UniProtKB/TrEMBL annotation:
This is Transglycosylase domain-containing protein. It catalyses: Preferential cleavage: (Ac)2-L-Lys-D-Ala-|-D-Ala. Also transpeptidation of peptidyl-alanyl moieties that are N-acyl substituents of D-alanine; [GlcNAc-(1->4)-Mur2Ac(oyl-L-Ala-gamma-D-Glu-L-Lys-D-Ala-D-Ala)](n)-di-trans,octa-cis-undecaprenyl diphosphate + beta-D-GlcNAc-(1->4)-Mur2Ac(oyl-L-Ala-gamma-D-Glu-L-Lys-D-Ala-D-Ala)-di-trans,octa-cis-undecaprenyl diphosphate = [GlcNAc-(1->4)-Mur2Ac(oyl-L-Ala-gamma-D-Glu-L-Lys-D-Ala-D-Ala)](n+1)-di-trans,octa-cis-undecaprenyl diphosphate + di-trans,octa-cis-undecaprenyl diphosphate + H(+). InterPro entries: Beta-lactam/transpept-like, Glyco_trans_51, Glycosyltr_51/Transpeptidase, Lysozyme-like_dom_sf, PBP_transglycosylase, PCN-bd_Tpept. The lineage of its organism: Bacteria, Bacillati, Actinomycetota, Actinomycetes, Streptosporangiales. Residues 322-586 form the Penicillin-binding protein transpeptidase domain. Pfam families: Transgly, Transpeptidase. The keyword Transferase applies.
């Protein structure tokens, strides 16, 4: 009857374009554990054998009880609908088969403009005829079971749940295979008008859904799919809607800052799509499985160390990133505050651990951690470990032309004095000047090796401002006046630990698409430094723990190197350090405005600090993190310094007699007073 009717009407099948359904993307840590989900539509596509038989029965009973008997169009249902429409003077009944409903959903999901969406929903015979042509082609292409499977996966049930699996979890907290009679009848009732019966919207909508569920139960009893007694018992049950929270989003992730980094890496990287829209669809609709670099053990180590020293309720916020030397893999990203928009709870609304490109903000001035780049430049240009200068307690550029930026412009300011706060003059070598973090020594050293060469060294190690602007090129560059983020600083120091091999920060190792196609991502590395120069820098920086500003904090029981950093008048404080196996950077500053709210006379982590230095809080956080993160990992030695090239006996020398004053709070040397250069 169907064939002859369609032939008489001159209706011919028309192929339906069926774009892939929007599916959620799952993010995994390095061990394969789910840590986040992204989606434009919350959907999990499943096969028909993963749907409870009672669910299939319920949906067919209420939507298309002759589904397995008719073709693309249910002639009896259509005649019934046409008769009703004729008497009502409009389109009152659709008479649509499940196949036609599937076609309608495909057209709606494929719509990219408001006009296309309206065309897919318009109440007209033209739309019905177009749907019928497509339905005929679908019936020729697929079996009935395949069509039912596709329909159940594409249908919208309300409460932001697309597809039967998502709906079962959202409504009742179970899988589609576990649905009971009452639950199945509820979901079968929801598809007719999911917005009007959306239980997430309130009591009125829940009452409508309950009424609709009972209609389904009565229909199932009428068709003898269940007994009248079963229907009556089921109708006495409450709705049972649980409203299981939707998974996904970085706010719901146990590692929100790392999650933000991954999300923004895809959204900002042309490797994942030529346009912003294409990248967004790839992430939120692609049904991807993204394997990442995050190490749960190391992440926990960073979180615990931060919690030990800084409270979430403190105004200053501490953040830390861990990076693997030789690969650039980000192993952990942690902060003292939760991610979110609740200002009362002091939640962070941006990625305080990363740069603006990855959801971060302006960052904090990196302070004396930048002295390392001047040190490396000096070693590159032939200075030996014990080479140095006699310096005073203050430094002024002798001429405007003393310092030139990389454009060749004179930017030296002979009217401005950089000081060591409380003295600390005398002869300083690369070793002792670094161990004591002597400001005047590093100004003199930068004058000697050249500002632009120092900037080029920093850039070769991936240094760029957190806010994405160009690095400021003033004479105080070596004192860390540029705002940084922990990922960037940790990664630069990781390159020293890898003997000069710089690798771009890396968060994603593998992406598997919805069809099982795997794309692997390898580190993007280059040899940024002569390995022997990196060895010499690591050797000097090792002495920071034994003879320098981290002396009171101590080492970690294995070869390690690093540098404290404190900005002018304690606007922020840092520690960046590394072993051959792991590097990390810790920053602390007040997110309300570091220059306005400085780290003087503050209580942090329940402890009062007259002034916060790099070794006061960031150094201990780094140490506690490394002890836990590297537990069970065999210690790796640094490559010994080439003494024939660089002279001296490196960090193994006996302590040099010191004249610099020790820090007030933690007994470490003062590496602070960076002149505020505007």
């Amino acid at each position: 009857m169907f064939v002859s009717a369609s032939e008489d009407l001159g209706i011919k099948p028309e192929d339906l374009t069926e774009p892939p359904l929007a599916e959620k993307t799952t993010v995994l840590d390095a061990e394969g554990n789910p840590i986040a989900q992204f989606y434009e539509e919350y959907r999990e596509t499943i096969s028909l054998d993963q749907v409870a038989p009672i669910m299939k029965t319920a949906i067919i009973s209420i939507e298309d009880f002759r589904f397995y008997e008719h073709g693309a169009i249910d002639i009896e249902g259509t005649i019934r609908a046409l008769a009703k429409n004729f008497t009502s003077g409009g389109i009152a009944q659709g008479g649509s088969s499940i196949t036609q409903q599937y076609v309608k959903q495909v057209l709606l999901n494929s719509a990219t403009t408001k006009e296309e969406q309206e065309a897919a929903l318009e109440a007209s015979y033209g739309r019905k005829l177009r749907e019928l042509r497509y339905a005929m082609a679908v019936e020729e292409k697929y079996t009935k079971d395949q069509i039912l499977e596709k329909y159940l996966n594409i249908a919208y049930f309300g409460a932001h749940a697309n597809g039967i699996e998502a709906a079962a979890k959202r409504f009742f907290g179970v899988k589609a295979s576990e649905l009971s009679l009452v639950q199945a009848a509820t979901l079968a009732g929801a598809v007719q008008d999911p917005n009007a019966t959306d239980p997430n919207l309130g009591k009125k909508q829940r009452a409508k859904l309950l009424s609709r569920r009972n209609v389904v139960l009565d229909r199932m009893a009428e068709l003898k799919k269940i007994t009248p007694e079963e229907a009556a018992a089921a109708k006495k049950k409450p709705l049972g809607y649980k409203g299981t929270p939707l998974p996904g989003g970085c706010e719901a992730s146990p590692y929100p800052y790392f999650c933000m980094y991954v999300r923004n890496e895809i959204l900002s990287n042309s490797d994942f799509g030529k346009t912003a829209k294409a990248r967004s669809q790839y992430l939120n609709r692609g049904g991807l499985t993204i394997q990442t670099t995050l190490n749960p053990k190391m992440q926990k180590a960073a979180e615990n160390a931060i919690k030990k020293h800084v409270f979430a309720s403190d105004n200053p916020v501490a953040s830390e990133a861990l990076v693997q030397p030789g690969t650039g893999q980000i192993k952990a990203m942690a902060a003292s505050r939760k991610y979110g928009n609740n200002k009362r709870k002091k939640e962070m609304s941006y990625n305080v651990v990363a740069d603006a490109q990855h959801g971060g903000g302006v960052g904090f001035q990196a302070g004396s951690t930048f002295k390392t780049f001047t040190l490396i430049t000096a070693l590159k240009e032939g200075m030996k470990l014990n080479d140095g200068f006699s310096v005073g307690s203050g430094y002024r550029a002798p001429y405007y032309s003393t310092f030139k930026n990389c454009k060749g412009e004179n930017i030296g300011d002979p009217t401005h004095t950089v000081t060591n706060d409380e003295g600390g003059g005398g002869f300083k070598s690369l070793k002792t000047g670094t161990w004591g973090s002597v400001n005047t020594f590093f100004m003199k050293l930068e004058e000697h090796v050249g500002l632009c060469d120092t900037i080029k060294t920093a850039k070769s190690l991936g240094i760029k401002r957190s806010d994405g602007l160009n690095l400021t090129e003033y004479e105080t560059f070596t004192l860390g006046t540029n705002e940084m983020d922990p990922v960037t600083v940790a990664n630069a120091y990781a390159a020293i630990g890898a003997r000069g091999k710089y690798c771009a920060p890396m968060a994603i190792t593998k992406i598997t698409d919805r069809n099982g196609k795997v794309t692997n991502f390898k580190p993007k590395c280059k040899q940024a430094l002569d390995p022997e120069v990196a060895d010499a820098a690591a050797d000097i920086l090792s002495g920071v723990f034994t003879q320098g500003t981290m002396r009171s904090v101590g080492g970690i029981g294995r070869p390690a190197a690093g540098k404290t950093g404190t900005t002018d008048a304690q606007a922020s404080a840092w520690f960046a350090g590394f072993t051959p196996d792991l590097a990390g950077a810790v920053s602390i500053g007040d997110s309300r405005g570091a220059q306005k709210y400085k780290l003087n006379g503050v209580t942090i982590g329940g402890r009062y600090y007259a002034s916060v230095f790099g070794a006061s809080i960031p150094g201990p956080i780094w140490k506690d993190t490394m002890l836990a993160a590297l537990k069970g990992t065999p210690a790796t030695d640094f490559t010994p310094v080439n003494s024939a090239r660089f002279g001296g006996c490196g960090s193994g020398c006996a302590p040099v007699e010191r004249t610099e004053p020790e820090g007030e709070e933690d007994g470490t040397l003062d590496d602070v007073d960076i002149a505020d250069f505007g």
